[in-house]
Amino acid sequence: MSTWRKSLKNRLLFVHYTQLYRFSSGEYYSEMCEDLENLKVLDIQIESITCDGLKATLKAIRKVYPEVILQRCVVHVHRMANVWLRQKPKTQASIELKRIVNLLPLIQSHNDRKLFTSRLMDWYKHYESFINEKARNEATGRWWYKHKYLKRTTTLISNALPNLFCYLDNPEIPKSTNGLESFFGHLKDNLSIHRGLSYANRKAFIVWYLHLKNQSRE
Q1: How does residue 3 score in pLDDT terms, banded at 50, 70 and 90?
Q2: What is the pLDDT of residue 30?
């Protein structure tokens, strides 16, 4: 998927149909702010936003819609944590964290959430010094985390945790962006059939695709 289509993917907000789209060369904070402001001008009422946690996206949402419920994509957190912890972790800390992380897709109640956070906090207290171990590069004098992927995973979960379980209070809040991924997967498949189109015609194809999708949902 090209950069401009990735950018489009992060601009498209919809309930039952496309509200707004933009062609862009990247995921820029200024453009995201502008898009959210335009949604306000269109008087579109937003109760919650589910996103994957890109810093620019979070910053834009907090600036333009500070009162809106922000739900972090549970699938994204689960997937990234497993990527960094690897399929077969080598340290005991990573093995135990992977077991805890794999509870995420199963959380359906506040009791599940309490069990998850309790196990996570107990794990962190036990391995805190190990997680934060540093080593020094004698050549450069710089310090770095010895277990950087474990540290990265811990930071990911810690940052996401305050906005990870909003869906438990409101079943209307999507806990993942899977629906959007499916929507764009279908668009990508259709584009691949017409891979010989010029750049301008590819954009025209997307515009018509979105328009016809909206028509079918009315």
Answers
A1: very low
A2: 95
User: Contact 126/150 with Cβ under 8 angstroms?
Assistant: no
Please name the residues in contact with 134: beta carbons below 8 A apart, sequence gap of 6 or more. 143, 144, 145, 146
User: Quick check: 1 pLDDT over 50?
Assistant: no
- For residue 18 the two structure tokens come to 């496309």
Nearest Cα neighbor of 179 from 31, 16, 40 is 16
41: tokens are: 């001008």
What is the phi-psi region of residue 141: left when phi exceeds 0, alpha when psi lies from -120 to 50, beta otherwise? left
- For 135, the 3-state DSSP assignment is strand
pLDDT of residue 48: 93
For residues 195 and 5, give the distance between their C-alpha atoms in angstroms, rounded to a whole number: 14
Q: What are the pLDDT digits (tens) for 47-89?
A: 999 999 999 999 999 999 999 999 999 999 999 999 999 999 9
The CA–CA distances, whole Å, from 92 to 23, 51, 100, 146, 147 equal: 46, 31, 13, 15, 12
**Domain ranges, ordered by start, for the chain:** 3-72+177-217, 75-161
Helix (H, G, I), strand (E, B) or coil at 107: coil
- Residues 160 and 77: beta-carbon distance below 8 Å: yes
